[in-house]
Design a protein that fits this description.
single chain, about 325 residues, alpha+beta, Rossmann fold, 5-stranded antiparallel sheet, globular
């Protein structure tokens, strides 16, 4: 039985993860390796019981292969079908309906379009023009954050204070679809690592310096409990088994501002040695659990089910826990 890792330009996590999975899985005939692909035949039998995907958002062939692998019975972390369909604006809307605190957010039409779209009234007849920029800023408040509706790595993110700054930033965003969001003037900021949807580790984070901090008493017990509960609710609704969820905390209220990070950063020099060791261990246990138990908690999103049940503002359900290393 094999576990595969699909990754890009990462240095510390891949060898440490593969080594730990091989160590833990040896007694059970489970091995781990880098996935190797060279053309995929239709209905080709699966080579891997589990694949951890950390790069298919950048490589279309990988994403198509992973969908095929799911069809053939491979458990893929994260679900490539849902990851393909998801975006941050939809995330915000789902979370808000589930009772999570979300900054006021507006979805904007993109500044520019592919060359084969004729920029005429006929091609874009459904768009209102001009946009009411002042009204949109009145809705979200000033200052505001302009950022892509899908994407990461702090790319194309702008803080704007007025319409002049907003339009200047917007001019630089083609061809991306953007969101305009209320700026949360936070006192505390955390990133929550996710392992298997409900195993949540809140980590102090400095967004100005973009660095993780090892501060175990960073949050009060009450705020920490709400952060974990809201992160669990978000992951169960969206189906992510590997993710980071960011909360900006203002006046004791955690606002979820980013939670579409299915290929989250696991590099040692950025997340610290402490959290690197934790991520390697918990991801290794997670994939072994998924390999040795062929009917794990469904990786599909549950937002429609949860909304239909009228659930909001809390951790829903009790997925089967990930086995401890000595048990797998």
């Amino acid at each position: 039985m094999k576990i595969g890792l699909l990754c890009g330009r990462e240095f510390s996590f891949p060898p440490a993860f593969l080594d730990r999975v091989n160590t833990l899985g040896r007694a059970h005939g489970v091995s781990a390796e880098m996935v190797k692909l060279g053309g995929t035949r239709m209905l080709e039998p699966p080579e891997y019981a589990v694949i951890v995907d950390r790069i298919s958002h950048e490589v279309e062939y990988y994403r198509a292969y992973l969908k095929h692998a799911v069809l053939q019975g491979t458990h893929v972390i994260n679900n490539p079908f849902w990851w393909t369909a998801d975006d941050k604006f939809f995330n915000y809307s789902v979370a808000a309906k589930l009772g999570i605190a979300i900054p006021r957010t507006v979805l904007l039409p993109q500044k520019n379009y592919p060359a084969d779209i004729d920029l005429t009234a006929e091609s874009l007849r459904n768009l209102s023009y001009p946009l009411d920029w002042e009204g949109l800023l009145d809705y979200v408040g000033r200052p505001a954050i302009l950022k892509p509706y899908s994407g990461g790595g702090w790319k194309h993110v702008y803080k704007v204070h007025d319409v002049h700054q907003l339009l200047s930033a917007y001019e630089q965003t083609a061809p991306y679809c953007m969101t305009l969001q209320e700026f949360i003037d936070f006192q505390l900021y955390v990133r929550c690592f996710t392992f298997g949807k409900t195993d949540i580790v809140p980590v102090a984070y400095d967004p100005h310096e973009r660095r993780y901090l090892v501060e175990h008493e960073y949050l009060t017990p009450e705020v920490g409990a709400r952060v974990v509960r809201d992160a669990q609710t978000i992951n169960l609704a969206l189906g992510y088994e590997m993710n980071t969820i960011e909360f900006a905390i203002r006046d004791g209220v955690p606002y979820a501002i980013d939670f579409l990070n299915p290929a989250c950063d696991f590099e040692r020099d950025r997340i610290t040695q402490f959290y690197f060791d934790m991520a390697v261990e918990r991801m290794s246990r997670l994939v072994l659990d998924r390999a040795l138990n062929p009917q794990p908690t469904s990786p599909w999103p549950r937002w429609e089910e949860m909304l239909g049940m009228g659930l909001s503002g809390g951790f829903i359900g009790a997925p089967r826990p990930v086995g401890r290393a000595e048990e797998v």
